[in-house]
């Protein structure tokens, strides 16, 4: 290991130099708050708890900081939302932090119309002038705050600030706003909320399009819960999951049954299911007035209208009745249509009928998304802007110019706003219109709090000094208020004088108790209040607010102590969270349960409760009268194909598109990278005479765009699907120019719930004779008769019938592993294909990004790939029930590794602990090891790896940066193994099972990957190795791999 | 010739040489020489085993074979030592094989066996044939390497007449006395006596 | 009984033969020769420039990718090693078997061996990701205390090829001693010094000849198993791996046969222009070439049989990975080169069953080129299709050749040509002494036949060798 130490020192030296340079810009040390200086040791990473702000889900994060550089995000195990897990977007937050495209200083538009770098003094002075001018013109009502969703202290500060200046309340714009779901909840529960969901309690899941494993509400949380209830690795009574949609998406790929329903027919199908369930239960269905209690269609008509056979619907209804509690979910982002509201209402009714409310659906624990502005409100604002009625726009990390349909012509409206201030991080389609840019700290550099579910608050603290010359938007607001006079400052600091209600213990709080007076707190009496002079910055504001909240009557020392403990924990729980966190024991548990560990029976249904008071300020209600309830989505245009824009796990709504990792890590299903494409069924492709990569021109009533074709059978022939979030026009070096955005084709009309009509147009398609090669990282999705990703039936999973034959013969005696033999167990029944592990591997192991042209020739560097296979056999008739299996493939660390003996220079060798080590310095680059690797897990450095500055600061100093011409591979995060071994040695104890977590295992939301010592018969991984459904991949080649795959379980193999 | 040059050594008498047009005459001359008890050295334009045998060339006693044998054994042993010692010196488990996994080493041992055998074969040849020697034999004439068979009698002046007669009898053309004038390396061979 | 055509040599005049064979070395370059040298030099330069770019930028300039990490370079390596095989085979094995037609090809094919090995040896270095570290595979004491891995077929390659090159060089060079002496005697000035040193003082005396003959037969005996072992070792590069399509017991004999096959074809390709450019038709006769064609026919049938065996075993094994590897080899993305290769290696040589084709210079030249192409493609197919379609279909990928690789490949041909063109101007392309030996032997046989009354003596021997119609 001498080599690795040397390289570590080299990397550490570079890292330290980089950190020093980055640290020169600002003053103040951020370490002391959490770790006193004297405890800081060079070379030993620190961990800071914070919140992931990459999407509104608000997962808890732990950031690893090496020598003042944030290098690796991990989930905070104490946070009930994600329980230590993180999705690929969260993993990529460091790439946002170090994005080369970030604004590095304030910018002001000069006379020539270009943004020019200015000092903070100039920039703030300009903003003060502008505020004064608005005040002078008495147009305070025309100043608009358009920002991303904020909750907690920042929300409070923004609202107070806007109120103090006489501006209207903020518009929190989320492209995925769940308008239909919220509107349906208003009917069902009285409040327009996104209710809480407990997937782990459901024994049956029926989803009419909710992409809850990819981008819906809180995908990490739902993935964790889904695995708990659906993976055979976690429960021996897996929930039955039916997904509905014209396309098999990441969520549908994990379903036991896919209904290839006609797009837009979700409401009709839901009603058909609901009427059958009601009939079986003999209880009436409570539906909104105006909605018929049944479809009134016979079996043939139903199949005609929805393309789903009536007996399939009948069977689903029977299962729903049989398997309670269950969870019925309405449409997701892709099918946010004119009928989505109806579908959501029916789903709410169905949940109520099945007794799910209070068990799996928790209206008492609403999500922060409940307080997002409706699309309609933002659209109205732009209409006012178009009419010249918006005087001043504050942009706070919102990018409607990209998200809005092209036909809405948002950019024209933006151009008519006299002054736009952007508190942005980087230029994007919206903020490029800004007149003044006041770059904000990135969340990883910021203070803050975020309350994703009512009662669950995550605390944000900066993990490092700001990379660039940025200032928190909140500090700017506080400064502006202080400059604007004592009254305004006092109004802003009012909450700090108030002692909120004492926090309630989550365990003992009465369910549904009135836990807080109002979201804004009781109105303060200004006379009592003297603004604390020291509160000039948001961190002081936040600290003060939380100290008062945690220990209202305590001494300063106690308050400081409470605050410090909270920061270290990173999360604060209050009463409404009780339902969300009850029974979750994730932080202590390590890996899926074994055969002997059975799941606790589901809890009995609890009474239906709605929150008495919401922790969120809900947006102004829609002025429209109760909407109509269409059963079938209206589709505009006379095209032959329905346009199906869908969100992906990597791009979400598009805000993560400018991340090299997001672009380079393959889309879980198509395995395409660095592009945007239209998914076409082979039959449709044949009809249109297009092959993979041919350019298809799509014409909708609102525009036309061209996309390269990806031919894939997992879609209806009458549907063309395009991922959301790609095709940015002006969004940095990685995202710009990746094809066209689907929004160009979208309808600008609104749904009855005030949301965007994502599913709303039909398009015409024709081949325009052009071609663009698509970089596809997995060409074959058919296992043929090779035994790769195996499955077994539920009935056989725990019987010897599931056992694969394994012959072990060797010329030489098997060599011993004296102390440890590290191994893994990967449960295919748990893996949902979300790519989180792969991204974590990129972050941990300094894996370089190769770019599109290299990916086109299959030169990606990923050490861990996920292969997607369509079951044992592939046939078009099973295309919509594809039996998709995701197979994460790290290095198998073979006992008899074929890669090792062919290396002429011993660069690849077997360590005593069973690792198939690769010594990069010794490699001469024959590439023979890769050729002889039957798993093809080795990667070659075709070029000198490059990281555009300052992305290089993200590099993990514990891992060598490989040079050109060198082979590299997964070594089970050997740096983590070494660290744990040193720690154990220092404490003179054996290594505990579960103490070492590889990066992939650490972040896997479903705990599909378990790492441990195979020499220890008591370790979890050893026990998993012995399971009947465990098999060693290609064991017949006598490679003796140290990874055991556990077969995926199906209700019935190869059929529904 | 300038006075600065050292005086030429006096040419030394070496013997008599004659060239034959065909091998039968050469064979005849060799039979005669044997009968007369004269030692001789022949120059052949081609290495022909039949002819060599006829000139009583005893192939079975060549030392080259022993050199080759020793080279082969030495090479094999050296390669065996190299592979086994280096693998034990740098013990790495690869492919689940033991440190001394001998089957692949056989190839190295074979190669070095052949290599050293060839080297020593060459060395044996060079030593036995007295090569490299850039002083050409004084009796050598260029045509002996083209189309004439040379026969040289390294005899004393007293035997010269016998040798000349023998050569003439066998049908030699251009019978000459060989004088070693000690000319430099690669000098055109001369067989004419000093004037 | 010796054939009359061989006895024809008995009438050759020895001096005339020497003059004829040495003339190409002594005369100045012709225009055709100069153009060839410039062309070969330029092509070599292209290869050098391409390699420079590859070193500077990285292996990314090639078409290599995951999972096809070897392609054209290793194809070239195996191809040139294969070419190198026939040289020593013709020279050593034919010597051991006392084959009559040996001298017609032995010198040029030995030279071909040396130059082909010198070309082939570049490729393992050239294909390295870090070519500047190539010496790490050599066993030399170093400060890192690291030794190479003697289990790796690549290290075995190093041993096999370096030994082969060394032994072939010795064999070639010592075989040239009499010719060097003759050149020495014919030349003046610096050339005389040069050839004099190169001839080591050869005079053809009994003292030198007697160990020389022993040496030659011993070297031939040592080189023969070496010929077989080298391509066996090269075949281990593949057969010691686990991949379906590489992991096969048949590879050593199959590779050796294929190498001889391709080498014989390359000899034809080289010798046909050689005999015409340098007026050597009397010494490399149509009969000699016909013998070569017959050998090609033999080796082609061995190669065909090997292909058939491969497919049969793949089917018979019942192994799904073997099935798909061989299926994709024949019907996958590379089906065109595959079937072209089958045509070139299995069917085109069958034309040699016809005596007319065997004695048609143009025809055999074209066929020899086709076999060269076919054998190059064979290595390409074995390497690329196996890697492209290995165990896991999810890791399948298609390799496309890039310009840099074409440039380097062309450069290797240029480099080989350049060496060969240099050789024909430095040493006689035929072993003069051995040709002489054959003439003497033929004379002896003729005399014996005349003495036995089986042949009537010609009226008078022709002054010059009769011109043989091509």
What report would you give on this structure?
- The complex is a heterotrimer of chains A (1056), B (195) and C (470).
- By secondary structure, chain A is α/β, with parallel strands linked by helices.
- Chain A is built from 30 helices and 39 strands.
- In chain A, helix 6 (179-189) packs across helix 12 and helix 9 (266-281) crosses helix 11 (310-322).
- The longest helix of chain A has 22 residues, at 2-23.
- The two termini of chain A are 52 Å apart.
- With 195 residues, chain B is of the alpha+beta class.
- Chain B folds into 2 domains: 12-58 and 137-180, 2-Layer Sandwich (Alpha-Beta Plaits), CATH 3.30.70; 64-129, no CATH class.
- Chain B has a 4-stranded antiparallel sheet with strand order 2-3-1-4.
- In chain B, helix 1 runs antiparallel to helix 5 and helix 3 packs antiparallel against helix 4.
- In chain C, 70% of the residues lie in helices and 0% in strands.
- Chain C has helices at 4-7, 14-26, 31-57, 72-96, 102-120, 122-126, 153-175, 177-186, 189-199, 206-239, 251-277, 286-316, 320-331, 335-347, 355-358, 361-388, 403-424, 432-451.
- The interface between A and B is medium-sized, with 19 and 9 residues.
**Chains forming the largest contact:** B-C, 68 and 68 residues
Report on the biggest sheet of chain C: none
User: Roughly what fraction of the amino acids of chain C lie in strands?
Assistant: under 5%
Q: Under CATH, the topology of chain C is which?
A: Formate dehydrogenase/DMSO reductase fold
Helix content of chain C: 55-70%
Number of helices of chain C: 18
Helix content of chain A: 25-40%
**What is the mean pLDDT of chain A?**
85
* Oligomeric state, counting identical vs distinct chains: heterotrimer
Please give the largest β-sheet of chain A.
7 strands, mixed
Radius of gyration of chain A: 28 Å
CATH architecture descriptor text of chain C:
Up-down Bundle
Q: Tell me the total number of β-strands of chain A.
A: 39
Shape, principal axes of CA atoms of chain A: globular
Q: What is the class of the domain at 791-810 and 821-1050 in chain A in the CATH system?
A: Alpha Beta
CATH H-level homologous superfamily name of chain C: Formate dehydrogenase/DMSO reductase domain
**Distance between the amino and carboxyl termini of chain C:** 26 Å
Number of strands of chain C: 0
Q: What fraction of the residues of chain A are assigned to beta strands by DSSP?
A: 15-25%
Order of helices and strands of chain C: HHHHHHHHHHHHHHHHHH
Q: Strands of the largest sheet of chain A, in order across it? A: 5-4-16-15-14-6-7
């Amino acid at each position: 290991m001498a080599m690795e130490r040397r390289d570590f020192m080299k990397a550490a030296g570079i890292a330290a130099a980089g950190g020093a340079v980055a640290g020169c810009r600002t003053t103040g040390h951020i370490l002391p708050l959490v770790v006193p200086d004297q405890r800081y040791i060079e070379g030993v990473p620190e961990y800071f708890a914070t919140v992931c702000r990459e999407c509104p889900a608000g997962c808890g994060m732990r950031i690893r900081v090496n020598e003042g550089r944030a290098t690796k995000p991990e989930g905070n195990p104490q946070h009930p939302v994600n329980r230590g897990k993180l999705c690929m977007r969260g993993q990529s937050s460091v790439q946002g932090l170090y994005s080369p495209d970030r604004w590095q200083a304030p910018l002001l538009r000069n006379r020539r119309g270009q943004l020019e770098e200015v000092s903070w003094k100039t920039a703030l002075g300009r903003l003060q002038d502008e505020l004064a001018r608005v005040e002078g013109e008495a147009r305070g009502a025309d100043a608009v705050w358009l920002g991303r969703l904020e909750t907690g202290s920042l929300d409070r500060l923004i609202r107070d600030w806007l109120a103090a200046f006489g501006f209207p309340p903020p518009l929190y714009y989320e492209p995925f706003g769940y308008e239909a779901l919220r509107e349906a909840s208003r009917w069902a529960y009285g409040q327009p909320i996104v209710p809480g969901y407990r997937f782990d309690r459901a024994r049956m899941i029926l989803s009419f399009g909710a992409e809850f494993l990819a981008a819906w509400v809180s995908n990490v949380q739902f993935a964790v819960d889904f695995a708990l209830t659906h993976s055979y690795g976690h429960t021996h009574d897996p929930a039955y999951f039916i997904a509905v949609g014209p396309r098999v998406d990441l969520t549908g790929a994990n379903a036991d049954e896919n209904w290839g329903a006609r797009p837009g027919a979700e409401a009709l199908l839901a009603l058909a299911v609901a009427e059958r369930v009601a009939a079986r239960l003999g209880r009436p269905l409570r539906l909104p007035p105006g909605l018929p209690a049944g479809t009134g269609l016979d079996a043939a008509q139903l199949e005609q209208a929805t393309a789903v056979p009536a007996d399939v619907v009948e069977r689903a209804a029977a299962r729903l009745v049989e398997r309670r509690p269950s969870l019925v979910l309405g449409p997701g982002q892709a099918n946010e249509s004119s009928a989505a509201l109806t579908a959501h209402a029916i789903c709410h009714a169905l949940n109520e009928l099945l007794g799910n409310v209070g068990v799996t659906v928790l209206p008492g624990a609403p999500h922060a998304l409940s307080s997002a502005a409706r699309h309609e409100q933002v659209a109205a604002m732009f209409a006012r802007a178009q009419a010249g009625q918006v005087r001043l726009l504050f942009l706070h990390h919102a990018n409607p110019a990209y998200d809005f349909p092209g036909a809405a012509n948002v950019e024209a409206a933006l151009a008519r706003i006299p002054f736009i201030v952007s508190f942005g991080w980087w230029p994007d389609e919206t903020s490029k219109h800004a007149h003044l840019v006041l770059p904000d700290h990135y969340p990883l550099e910021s203070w803050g709090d975020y309350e994703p579910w009512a009662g669950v608050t995550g605390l944000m603290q900066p993990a490092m000094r700001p990379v660039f010359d940025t200032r928190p938007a909140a500090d700017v607001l506080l400064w502006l208020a202080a400059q604007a006079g004592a009254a305004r400052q006092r109004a802003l600091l009012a909450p700090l004088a108030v002692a909120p209600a004492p926090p309630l213990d989550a365990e003992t709080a009465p369910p549904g108790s009135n836990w807080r007076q109002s979201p804004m707190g009781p109105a303060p009496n200004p006379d009592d209040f003297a603004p604390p002079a020291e509160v000039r910055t948001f961190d002081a504001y936040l600290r003060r607010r939380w100290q008062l909240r945690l220990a209202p009557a305590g001494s300063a020392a106690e308050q400081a102590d409470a605050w410090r403990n909270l920061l270290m924990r990173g999360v604060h729980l209050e009463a409404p969270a009780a339902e969300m966190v009850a029974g979750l024991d994730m932080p202590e548990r390590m890996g899926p349960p074994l055969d002997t560990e059975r799941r606790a029976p589901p809890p009995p249904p609890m009474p239906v409760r709605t929150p008495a008071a919401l922790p969120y300020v809900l947006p102004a209600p829609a002025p429209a009268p109760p909407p109509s309830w269409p059963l079938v989505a209206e589709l505009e245009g006379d095209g032959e194909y329905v346009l199906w824009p869908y969100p992906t796990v990597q791009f979400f709504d598009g805000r993560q598109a400018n991340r090299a990792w997001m672009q380079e890590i393959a889309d879980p299903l198509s395995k395409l990278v660095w592009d945007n494409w239209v998914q076409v069924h082979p039959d449709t492709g044949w009809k249109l005479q297009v092959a993979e990569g041919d350019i298809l021109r799509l014409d909708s009533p609102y525009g036309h765009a061209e996309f390269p074709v990806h031919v894939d059978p997992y879609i209806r022939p009458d549907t063309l699907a395009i991922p959301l979030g790609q095709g940015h026009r002006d969004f940095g070096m990685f995202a710009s120019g990746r094809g066209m955005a689907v929004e160009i084709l979208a309808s600008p009309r609104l749904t009855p719930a005030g949301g965007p009509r994502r599913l709303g147009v039909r398009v015409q398609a024709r081949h325009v004779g052009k071609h663009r090669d698509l970089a596809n990282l997995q060409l074959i999705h058919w296992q043929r008769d090779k035994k790769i990703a195996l499955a077994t039936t539920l009935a056989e999973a725990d019987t010897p019938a599931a056992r694969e034959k394994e012959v072990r013969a060797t010329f030489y005696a098997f060599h011993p592993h004296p102390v440890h033999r590290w191994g893994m167990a990967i449960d295919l029944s748990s893996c949902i294909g979300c790519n989180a592990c792969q991204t974590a591997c990129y972050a941990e192991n300094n894996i370089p990004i190769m770019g599109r042209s290299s990916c086109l020739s299959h030169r990606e560097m990923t050490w861990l790939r996920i292969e997607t296979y369509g079951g044992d056999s592939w046939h078009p008739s099973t295309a919509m029930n594809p039996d998709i299996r995701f197979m994460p493939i790290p290095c198998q660390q073979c006992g008899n590794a074929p890669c090792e003996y062919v290396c002429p220079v011993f660069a690849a060798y077997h360590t005593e602990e069973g690792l198939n080590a690769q010594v990069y310095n010794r490699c001469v680059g024959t590439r023979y090891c890769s050729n002889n690797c039957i798993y093809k897990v080795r990667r070659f450095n075709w070029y000198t790896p490059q990281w555009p500055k300052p992305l290089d600061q993200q590099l993990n100093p514990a891992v060598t940066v490989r040079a050109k011409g060198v082979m590299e591979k997964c070594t089970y995060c050997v740096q983590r193994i070494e660290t744990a071994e040193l720690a154990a040695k220092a404490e003179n104890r054996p290594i505990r099972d579960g103490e070492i977590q590889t990066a992939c295992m650490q972040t896997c939301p479903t705990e599909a990957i378990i790492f441990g010592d195979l020499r220890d018969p008591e370790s979890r991984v050893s026990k998993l190795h012995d399971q009947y459904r465990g098999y060693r991949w290609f064991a017949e080649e006598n490679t003796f791999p140290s990874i055991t795959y556990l077969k995926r379980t199906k209700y019935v193999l190869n059929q529904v | 010739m300038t006075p600065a040059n050292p005086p030429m050594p006096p040419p030394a008498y070496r013997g008599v040489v004659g060239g034959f047009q065909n091998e039968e005459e050469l064979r005849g001359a060799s039979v005669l020489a044997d009968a007369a008890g004269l030692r001789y050295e022949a120059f052949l334009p081609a290495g022909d085993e039949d002819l060599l045998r006829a000139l009583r060339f005893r192939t079975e006693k060549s030392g080259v074979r022993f050199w080759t044998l020793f080279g082969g054994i030495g090479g094999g042993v050296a390669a065996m030592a190299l592979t086994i010692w280096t693998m034990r010196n740098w013990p790495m488990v690869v492919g689940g094989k033991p440190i001394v996994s001998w089957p692949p080493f056989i190839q190295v041992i074979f190669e070095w066996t052949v290599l050293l055998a060839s080297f020593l074969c060459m060395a044996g040849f060079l030593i036995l044939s007295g090569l490299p020697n850039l002083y050409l034999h004084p009796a050598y004439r260029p045509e002996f390497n083209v189309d004439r068979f040379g026969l040289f009698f390294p005899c004393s002046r007293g035997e010269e007449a016998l040798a000349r007669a023998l050569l003439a009898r066998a049908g030699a053309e251009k019978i000459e006395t060989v004088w070693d004038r000690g000319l430099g390396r690669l000098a055109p061979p001369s067989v004419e006596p000093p004037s | 009984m010796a054939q009359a055509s061989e006895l024809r040599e008995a009438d050759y005049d020895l001096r005339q033969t020497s003059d004829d064979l040495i003339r190409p070395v002594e005369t100045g370059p012709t225009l055709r020769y100069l153009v060839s040298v410039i062309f070969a030099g330029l092509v070599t330069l292209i290869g050098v420039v391409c390699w420079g770019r590859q070193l500077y930028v990285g292996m990314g300039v090639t078409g290599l990718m995951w999972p096809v990490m070897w392609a054209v370079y290793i194809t070239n390596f195996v191809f040139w090693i294969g070419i190198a095989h026939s040289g020593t085979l013709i020279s050593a094995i034919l010597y051991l078997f006392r084959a009559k037609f040996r001298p017609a090809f032995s010198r040029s094919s030995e030279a071909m061996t040396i130059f082909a090995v010198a070309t082939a040896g570049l490729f393992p270095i050239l294909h390295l990701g870090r070519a500047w570290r190539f010496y790490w595979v050599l066993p030399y004491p170093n400060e890192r205390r690291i030794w190479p891995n003697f289990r790796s077929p690549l290290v075995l390659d190093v041993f096999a090829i370096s030994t082969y090159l060394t032994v072939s060089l010795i064999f070639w060079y010592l075989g040239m001693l009499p010719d060097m002496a003759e050149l020495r005697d014919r030349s003046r000035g610096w050339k005389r010094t040069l050839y004099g040193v190169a001839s080591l003082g050869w005079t053809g005396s009994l003292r030198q000849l007697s160990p020389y003959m022993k040496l030659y037969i011993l070297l031939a005996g040592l080189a023969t198993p070496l010929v077989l072992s080298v391509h066996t070792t090269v075949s281990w590069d593949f057969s010691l791996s686990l991949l379906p399509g590489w992991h096969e017991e048949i590879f050593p004999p199959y590779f050796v046969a294929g190498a001889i096959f391709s080498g014989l074809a390359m000899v034809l390709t080289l010798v046909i222009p050689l005999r015409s450019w340098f007026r050597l038709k009397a010494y490399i006769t149509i009969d000699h070439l016909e013998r070569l064609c017959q050998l090609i026919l033999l080796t082609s049938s061995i190669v065909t049989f090997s292909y058939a065996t491969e497919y049969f075993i793949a089917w018979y094994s019942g192994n799904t990975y073997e099935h798909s590897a061989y299926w994709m080899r024949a019907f996958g993305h590379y089906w065109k080169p595959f079937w072209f290769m089958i045509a070139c290696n299995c069917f085109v040589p069958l034309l040699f069953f016809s005596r007319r084709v065997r004695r048609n210079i143009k025809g055999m030249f074209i066929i020899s080129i086709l076999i060269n192409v076919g054998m190059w493609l064979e290595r390409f197919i074995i390497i690329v299709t196996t890697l492209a379609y290995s165990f896991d279909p999810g890791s399948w990928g298609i390799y496309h050749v890039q310009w840099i690789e074409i440039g380097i490949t062309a450069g290797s041909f240029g480099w080989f040509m350049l060496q060969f063109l240099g050789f024909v101007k430095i040493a006689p392309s035929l072993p003069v002494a051995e040709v002489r030996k054959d003439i003497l032997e033929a004379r002896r046989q003729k005399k014996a036949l005349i003495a036995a009354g089986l042949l009537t003596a010609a009226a008078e021997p022709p002054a010059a060798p009769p011109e043989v119609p091509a």
